[in-house]
Amino acid sequence: MRERVSYGNAIVNKGKKYITKGIYKLIIKDVEEVTKTAKGADTDYLKFTFDIADGEFKGYYANDYENQTNEKKWWKGTFSAFVPVDDGTERDKKTANRFKTLINAFEESNNGYHWDWNEKGLINKTIYGTFRNREYEPGKWTVECSMFVSAKEVEAKRVWSGWLEDKPLNGSSATSGNSASTSDFVNVASDTLAELPFN
User: Fold this and answer.
1) Cα(179)–Cα(177) distance, rounded to whole angstroms?
2) Domain for residue 196, yes or no?
């Protein structure tokens, strides 16, 4: 049998362990302010790059990146948050509320941190993320970060279950409506925060 040169550089596939939906402690690796123009209007958002900070999946996204064999690699641990544009619309007010809630989660999760409109100041900060299953093609699913939540919310077991619901392609969800009742919050195990919140 002829020796194959490529064999020497090949990677042994030991079976990748994929992250599952649940709640994980994250560390922010980078933050970038992005402006996109659509239909003549600018939309601003912060693009967060993160990794899992502890537990079974610690360093998950770094390991994934290092083991990618494609010529063009990409970091898969990302989350985007819209930033208000101050145009006075009701939609922008809602965006401002969501953005402030997100920033408050960082402030509550990192002692002494206070938001000063320097997005790079969020690098190396910790935050918790809710992860859900999302269908990206018919019958094909991935796990994505759906929201950042504070350490206080997790410790108090006050995490909205809607952020953990599966998201099929048609946009339907097991959870509907904008209001949340007490039963819409999931119990988070105090001994491990990386387990499935409901199973």
Assistant:
1) 6
2) no
Q: How far is CA 78 from CA 28, 30, 52, 191, in A?
A: 9, 9, 11, 26
Is residue 63, in this structure, part of any structural domain at all? yes
Q: In which domain, by residue range, is 41 found?
A: 15-186
Do the bridges between strand 126-137 and strand 140-149 make them parallel or antiparallel, or are there none, so unpaired? Answer: antiparallel
Does residue 193 fall inside a structural domain? no
Per-residue pLDDT of 122-133, as tens digits, reads 999 999 999 999
Domain tally for the chain? Answer: 1
Q: Which two tokens stand for residue 179?
A: 């209001």
H/E segment holding residue 64: helix 60-67
* Amino acid found at 108: E
Distance CA 2, CA 29 (A): 45
Q: What is the tens place of the pLDDT at every residue in 6-37?
A: 777 666 655 578 899 999 999 999 999 999 88
